[in-house]
Amino acid sequence: QVQLVESGGGLVQPGGSLRLSCAASGFTFSNYAMSWYRQAPGKEREWVAHITNTGGTTNYIDSVKGRFTISRDNAKNTVYLQMNSLKPEDTAVYFCTVMLRSGAVYWGKGTLVTVSS
Length: 117
Known about the structure:
7-stranded mixed sheet
């Protein structure tokens, strides 16, 4: 079955960096685009970044452009989110997600990122 397992979250000071990872299994990873979403306390889940199946095209929400980088390693079935210059407003649970050709959407359980001094 499809599994997405996020890791790499934690507590970081403002201005710091973290790299999130999402290990995928149960589907042909290299065939599918991947996305990262986040959900801050008391707020709705929002889309953060997207990467095509080859990694050739990436897109970001405006608030993270120039600070976050999404990438993937198809040999390792893993998608990453490098987060630099973190701000308190980046505090959230971060999720990776995939939509398969069947239309089914799968989510990981998320990893918590807390940006605080």
